[in-house]
Amino acid sequence: MIIDEYCKELEEIIDSKVSRNFILLPGRGGGRMLTPTKNLHEDKAILKIGARILSFLTFPRTLNSTWEAYGEFQNQESQNIPNIQFDTFILALDFLYMIGAIEYQGDLLRRTKSD
């Protein structure tokens, strides 16, 4: 699935830029992961929301356009994926910005180039 590719890209960004600031737990199959708690649906985890946001940023977008794209995705997948609120969306953007995965210039969000 395409989301898995973006999750892998996020893991690479975390490894290369900010791994000293995060505790990454060993996962199944030898990988490392940031995990949500057992009380949080995985589709509401900031890491997964961030991966989805990256999938929408194949070209620079405004904040509103990115939120609308996420909303369309939620409407298409509404049976399987819980809806998120705008504040959770913003937290995911903050996370992506903090780890250097996105930048905000001239009212546009864009993915940064991977090293």
Summarize the structure.
The protein has 115 residues and is mainly alpha-helical. The chain has one domain: Arc Repressor Mutant, subunit A.
Helix/sheet category: mainly alpha
* CATH secondary-structure class: Mainly Alpha
Number of helices: 4
Mean pLDDT: 79
How much of the sequence lies in strands comes to 5-15%
Flag low-confidence runs. Answer: 18-22
Number of domains: 1
Report how far the terminal alpha carbons are from each other.
Answer: 23 Å
Give the second-level CATH assignment, the architecture: Orthogonal Bundle
Strand order of the largest sheet: 1-2
Structural Rg: 14 Å
CATH T-level topology: Arc Repressor Mutant, subunit A
Largest sheet: 2 strands, antiparallel
Any overview of this molecule?
- This protein has 115 residues and is mainly α.
- The chain has 4 helices and 4 strands; from the N terminus they run αββαααββ.
- The strands form 2 sheets. The chain has a two-stranded antiparallel ribbon. Strands 3-4 form a two-stranded antiparallel sheet.
- The protein is globular.
- The protein starts with a helix and ends with a strand.
Helix and strand layout, with pairings?
Elements (H helix, E strand, L loop, with lengths): L1 H17 L6 E2 L5 E2 L12 H11 L6 H14 L9 H13 L3 E4 L2 E4 L4
Antiparallel strand pairs: 1-2, 3-4
Helix pairs in contact: 1-2, 2-4
Which descriptors apply to this entry?
mainly alpha; 48% helix; 115 residues; ABC-3C_MC6; Arc Repressor Mutant, subunit A; 4 helices; two-stranded antiparallel ribbon; 10% strand
